[in-house]
Amino acid sequence: MDMTFDLLLKDGIVVTGSGICKADVGVKDESIVAVGPDLSRDHAREVLDVPGKYIFPGIIDVHVHPVYLDDVEASSRVAAYGGTTTLLHFAYARTGESLYEQVEKMLLDAQRRSRLDFGLHGGMFEAPRQVPEIPKVMELGVRTFKFFLTYLKQGWYTDDYQLIKGM
After folding, report:
1. How would you list the strands of the sheet with 59-64, edge to edge?
2. Is residue 104 within 8 Å of residue 111, measured between CB atoms?
3. 126 and 93 in contact (C-beta within 8 Å)?
4. Can you give the residue ranges of every domain in the chain?
5. Measured distance CA(62)–CA(79) in Å, rounded
6. Using one digit for the tens of pLDDT, what is the confidence trace for 81-120?
7. Please, is 120 exposed, middle or buried when counting C-beta atoms within 10 Å of its C-beta (0-12, 13-18, 19+)?
């Protein structure tokens, strides 16, 4: 396959979900388009020789809390330096808040400011009030939801009835 790359990483140690191997990584239009041995230097605008360096193409971090210590922009920038390409943030609806409104707010923020691909988990601090919003939140693309099975004293605990109702 003959392809033009914007960036070619040569002779790295590539780590994927299926193993570790010596390989090259070709990038075009900000996406990884090829991973393999001996990709051609001739059709790359920029070549970085990275012998002995680890390359982690396409890491997805599925458990991110950007609202605690930083924000969507900062967390995505830092993650990108480590090779992460996708983050799944928690969009929490605290007690008294609408799950839909919190997810929509974080979605708009991430669309504007994230430097990576992203997804969201819906997190509920008040399940009896927020579980009925799940179908509407799913229309925004959210497919996973966090229920607290601890924190009874704080009022965040989700009982079995609400948990089953949320499924």
Report:
1. 59-64, 84-93, 117-124, 144-147
2. no
3. yes
4. 5-55, 59-166
5. 12
6. 777 889 999 999 999 999 999 999 999 999 999 999 999 9
7. buried
pTM for the model stands at 0.73
- Tell me which residue has tokens 């808040």: 97
Nearest to 90 by CA among 110, 111, 112, 115: 110
Hunting for tokens 């990709």 — which residue is that? 39
Q: Which residue has the tokens 């041995």?
A: 37
Beta strands in 3-152 (DSSP E): 5-16, 19-28, 31-36, 44-49, 54-55, 59-64, 84-93, 117-124, 144-147
Domain 5-55 in CATH 1.20.58.60? The answer is: no
